[in-house]
């Protein structure tokens, strides 16, 4: 079973307008509501690819109930913790000549709710996978990733960490099965610019030396590069298509990689790259048909 953890899921309210005029009444051309968060996105694409997955996280209020219904409707099993106060956050995305975002803080997560999370995590068994993705709310300890991996280490659980900065580097000692920085995040960690494939691969090897098993580097329009657990470098260019929306493409890449790894790392890179690209070419998270069509075109 693949479990995903989203500490602060959200409902994104996307509004499209011609021009945003401050201090005036603006009227939208169209609106849409998107339910997600990085872990939830991973679970959604896993479910689209036919894999069983459980989405963990914290939700609150009527917005949390709406998010739970929406995620369950995608075929994802949810095991969210319902907080006693507050509401799951709503983020406002204004798309016009420039894109403006207003991201809410989210509900307070009390100590009792965190203990409930630990009880759920303790049920994850040998051979299962746990995906930790995204930022940590201010009401939780900022070393929560370390606390979780320390608690679960030695149980035969595969860890996947998709985070930035110290959240990522501080858990390398727990030997995560997969980490997925993008080029900018890898440059920030290594403290230097990375322009060539050789430079990117060398930086990825540095993270492997610190404990990561597989390092998958997403390169946007340049595709992706993988340094696998055997220190082999796999490189694939980007798929061709019209980019519609890149939100969730990195999460889709993680999901595709986990499914593809069942057939080896070369295929894991192909399926991960296809899943990320298919989501970028779509107004929503990619379907299995969209992902496999890209894979077949690459064959």
Describe the sheet with the most strands.
Answer: 10 strands, mixed
Helix share bin: 25-40%
Order of helices and strands: EEEHEHEEEEHEHEHEHHEEEHHH
**Count of alpha/pi helices:** 10
**Looking at the structure, what is the overall shape?**
globular
Classify the oligomer. Answer: single chain
**Could you name the CATH class of the domain at 177-299?**
Alpha Beta
The CATH architecture category of the domain at 177-299 equals 3-Layer(aba) Sandwich
Give keywords:
single chain; 299 residues; alpha/beta; UDP-N-acetylmuramoyl-L-alanine:D-glutamate ligase; 4-stranded mixed β-sheet; 23% strand; globular
Please provide a written account of the structure.
With 299 residues, this protein is an alpha/beta fold. It has a domain at 177-299: UDP-N-acetylmuramoyl-L-alanine:D-glutamate ligase. The chain is built from ten helices and 14 strands. It has helices at 38-48, 61-72, 111-121, 144-152, 165-169, 183-190, 197-209, 249-260, 265-280, 288-298, and strands at residues 2-6, 10-16, 30-36, 53-60, 77-78, 81-83, 89-95, 99-102, 129-133, 158-162, 178-179, 214-218, 224-227, 233-236. The strands form two sheets. Strands 1, 4, 5, 6, 9, 10, 11, 12, 13 and 14 form a ten-stranded mixed sheet that branches. Strands 3-2-7-8 form a four-stranded mixed sheet. Helix 1 (38-48) packs across helix 8 (249-260) and helix 9 (265-280) packs across helix 10 (288-298). The chain is globular. The mean pLDDT is 93.
Give a quick summary of the entry.
The protein is α/β, with parallel strands linked by helices and 299 residues long.
């Amino acid at each position: 079973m693949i479990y995903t953890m989203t500490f602060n899921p959200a409902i994104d309210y996307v509004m499209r307008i011609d021009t945003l005029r401050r201090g005036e009444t603006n009227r939208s051309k169209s609106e849409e509501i998107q339910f997600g968060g990085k872990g939830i996105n991973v679970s959604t694409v896993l479910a689209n690819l036919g894999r069983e997955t459980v989405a963990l996280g914290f939700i609150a209020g009527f917005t949390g109930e709406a998010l739970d219904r929406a995620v369950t409707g995608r075929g994802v099993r949810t095991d969210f913790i319902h907080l006693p106060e507050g509401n799951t956050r709503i983020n406002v995305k204004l798309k016009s000549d420039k894109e403006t975002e207003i991201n809410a803080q989210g509900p307070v997560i009390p100590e009792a709710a965190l203990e409930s999370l630990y009880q759920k995590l303790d049920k994850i068994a040998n051979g299962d996978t746990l995906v930790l993705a995204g930022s940590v709310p201010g009401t939780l300890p900022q070393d929560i990733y370390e606390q979780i991996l320390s608690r679960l280490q030695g149980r035969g659980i595969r860890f996947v960490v998709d985070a930035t900065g110290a959240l990522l580097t501080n858990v390398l000692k727990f030997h995560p099965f997969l980490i997925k920085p993008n080029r900018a995040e890898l440059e920030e960690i290594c403290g230097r610019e990375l322009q060539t494939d050789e430079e990117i691969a060398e930086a990825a090897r540095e993270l492997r030396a610190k404990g990561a098993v597989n390092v998958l580097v997403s390169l946007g329009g340049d595709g992706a590069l993988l340094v696998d657990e055997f220190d082999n470098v796999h490189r694939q260019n980007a798929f061709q298509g019209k980019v519609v929306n890149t939100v969730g493409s990195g999460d889709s890449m993680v999901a595709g990689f986990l499914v593809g790894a069942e057939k080896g790392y070369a295929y894991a890179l192909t399926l991960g790259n296809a899943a990320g690209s298919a989501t970028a070419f779509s107004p929503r998270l990619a379907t299995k048909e969209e992902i496999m069509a890209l894979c077949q075109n690459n064959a």
